[in-house]
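Researcher: Next entry in the queue.
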Amino acid sequence: MPIQIVESRNKYKNFNFVVEVLVRLKEYKLAIIGGGSLSQADKGLIKYNIGNNYEHLVVLDNIELNKQYNKVFCLFYPTSYEGLGFQY
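Model: Structure for this entry, 88 residues:
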């Protein structure tokens, strides 16, 4: 059953933390959606911690993204900061 992270893997998004959590949750698979290509650092982190227990779907249309949302166990929001740009 997948655990899903969508979009970028910038430092403040805590991607490393997600991968470290999955070390303990071996029955779950990481689904990485979007965010461009995996960097060498991302690949190394994933391989070292969870091996091949992930999938990376670089580009999905809204229909496919909706299907992904509906089949995952959880959507993980480990980010330490989000600037959503609210205007009043």
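Model: The helical segments are 15-24, 40-50, 62-71.
Researcher: Noted, moving on.
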